[in-house]
């Protein structure tokens, strides 16, 4: 009889209660409590009470990004589909959603990364019942015509052309191509250019992509702010409960070990400043939270304003406009980078050697423990100070949950930061920031008539 009960309830139209996890309490690392439930269909629903009278943030994270695009000729669809998710349904045709949410004054947007697609709405609690209904409807019942699809595909192509006018997209493409020979991180979130050009002919595949990845068991919902929890969960069960698709299972190719240094170079056809990127393939946050915390701290330790490299290259010798890192958390092993925007091409070797020398000192065990402690305190303080609104909280929670697969991924990251020791920092550099794993990318711009690069 127990085995038949779920089926009987389903046939009678009665939803099973959500499975509730014990609340994740507030702590010094993260000052807000997470209430997490999982619906029978697999949707994870996290509510976070926040002292924002009459205001809420509504964040939906789908664990799909360019990482999931394993089929040849089908790159860029995660980003493209972010656009299509605003096209409407039979209940709310295109434009209806924007009209309703606009009347309430919601700020509404989305973004796509290598690993996740995140949607957020931010506005008055008074509109939350309508927002829940509208969001559940589009995630369950998205509709769009082939002409609408083709128009948006051309818009995405235009977005690529706009981004390609600056050096950053080309640099990302060339660095990924040098670093990854098999893994889907080889292509950017935008996708390969030839695949973007072919998108208008991929209407049928787009419907497959929606059914494959926009599923409750591949999605996490975060509601942050001022709301009645019981009423919210009643509405969530009502509108999201019938959502019954299951996420696809695909095999993301593992990247083989790198056996020696690699290089890539870009001759940029327009005047700009020379660029240098130094990169190594390092563990992902999805598999190693401690290594993710180490890399977060390494950004400031090696290239931050208190680093010797910054003092030498930016302040004293003034050889670069800036140094930094493009590191961000990923599900799978990705890249730790050091970046420099040079003032003159003649200083490239000096800049590269200076940065690599700092890495060598670190690997040799020469760690400034006091400076590391200051960076850890600053990282924690900065992360907490950045949580100024429910939207800030929701996006941070959603980002880390999407990457790690855990609703409390952000809290675990914050808890890991102060626990990193000087020995761990040195050991990480010794294991991963090595010569045989090195990838060097250089960009040399076209010079002007006077020989300058500006």
TrEMBL record:
Keywords: Hydrolase, Signal. Its EC number is 3.4.24.-. GO terms for molecular function: hydrolase activity; metal ion binding. Residues 247-268 are annotated as: Disordered. InterPro entries: Metalloenz_LuxS/M16, MPP/UQCRC_Complex, Pept_M16_N, Peptidase_M16_C. The keyword Magnesium does not apply. SUPFAM superfamilies: LuxS/MPP-like metallohydrolase (SSF63411). Residues 1-20 form the signal peptide. It comes from the Bacteria. It is an enzyme of class 3 (hydrolase). Belongs to the peptidase M16 family. PANTHER family: METALLOPROTEASE (PTHR11851), MITOCHONDRIAL-PROCESSING PEPTIDASE SUBUNIT ALPHA (PTHR11851:SF49). This is Peptidase, M16 (Pitrilysin) family. It comes from Myxococcus xanthus (strain DK1622).
């Amino acid at each position: 009889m127990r085995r038949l009960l779920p089926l009987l309830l389903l046939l009678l139209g009665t939803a099973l209660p959500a499975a509730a996890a014990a609340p994740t309490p507030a702590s010094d690392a993260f000052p807000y409590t997470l209430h997490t439930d999982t619906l029978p269909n697999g949707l994870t629903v996290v509510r976070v009470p926040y002292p924002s009278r009459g205001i809420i943030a509504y964040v939906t994270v789908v664990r799909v990004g360019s990482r999931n695009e394993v089929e040849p000729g089908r790159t860029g669809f995660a980003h493209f589909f972010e656009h299509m998710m605003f096209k409407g349904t039979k209940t709310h045709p295109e434009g209806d959603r924007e009209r309703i949410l606009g009347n309430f004054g919601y700020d509404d947007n989305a973004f796509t990364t290598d690993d996740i697609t995140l949607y957020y709405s931010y506005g008055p609690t008074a509109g939350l019942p309508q927002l829940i209904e509208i969001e559940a409807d589009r995630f369950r019942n998205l509709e769009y015509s082939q002409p609408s699809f083709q128009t948006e595909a051309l818009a995405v192509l235009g977005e690529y052309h706009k981004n390609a006018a600056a050096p950053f997209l080309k640099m990302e493409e060339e660095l990924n191509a040098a670093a990854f020979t098999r893994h889907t991180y080889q292509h950017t979130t935008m996708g390969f250019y030839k695949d973007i050009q072919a998108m208008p002919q991929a209407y049928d595949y787009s419907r497959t992509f929606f059914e494959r990845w926009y599923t409750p068991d591949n999605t996490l919902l975060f509601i942050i702010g001022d709301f009645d929890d019981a009423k919210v969960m009643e509405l969530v069960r009502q509108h999201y409960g019938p959502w019954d698709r299951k996420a696809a299972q695909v095999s993301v190719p593992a990247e083989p070990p790198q056996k020696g240094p690699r290089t890539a170079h870009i001759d940029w056809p327009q005047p700009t400043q020379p660029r240098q990127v130094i990169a190594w393939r390092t563990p992902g946050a999805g598999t190693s939270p401690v290594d993710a915390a180490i890399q977060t701290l390494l950004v400031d330790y090696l290239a931050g304003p208190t680093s010797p490299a910054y003092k030498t290259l930016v302040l004293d010798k003034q050889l670069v406009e800036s140094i930094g890192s493009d590191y961000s958390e990923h599900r799978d092993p990705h890249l730790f980078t050091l970046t420099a925007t040079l003032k003159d091409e003649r200083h490239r070797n000096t800049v590269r050697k200076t940065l690599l020398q700092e890495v060598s000192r670190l690997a040799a065990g020469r760690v400034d423990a006091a400076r590391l402690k200051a960076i850890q305190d600053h990282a924690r303080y900065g992360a907490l100070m950045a949580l100024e609104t429910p939207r800030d909280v929701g996006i941070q929670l959603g980002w880390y949950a999407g990457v790690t697969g855990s609703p409390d991924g952000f809290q675990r990251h914050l808890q890991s930061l102060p626990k990193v020791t000087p020995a761990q920092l040195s050991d990480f550099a010794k294991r991963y920031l090595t010569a045989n794993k090195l990838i060097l990318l250089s960009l040399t711009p076209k010079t002007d008539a006077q020989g300058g690069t500006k």
